[in-house]
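Predict fold of DNA-binding transcriptional ArsR family regulator; 121 aa.
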Amino acid sequence: MPSRLIVSRELADLLKLLAHCDRLRLIEELRLGEKDVTSLAVALQLPATRVSQHLALLRAHRLVEERRDGRSHFYRLAHAHLADWILDALPFVDIRKRLGEADHIDTALALWGVPDPNSTH
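Predicted 3D structure, encoded as tokens:
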């Protein structure tokens, strides 16, 4: 039983780290490949300092890796399937009912390149 407790605590810590919309968006953006802070800030419409702070947390927990090229710092997911894992959680988000409209989740799925599971196409 102690090993289950340890693993449960570790998983809870991971979920706490991921429990921030900016960090989830960063992971989703890095799913497309390595990017620098400026590119991430522009893509996510966030201040570069905020992106750097989130990347530092993700890096400290070994979810992203950093590569330096001169003065530039490039980031990539340490485990590419992390983004897929997060995208797989979308069916558990009942955003369609809470917002009273489906457009928001459909737009996110389209931006993230994920086919809508509710689509009849």
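The chain has two domains: 20-78, 89-121.
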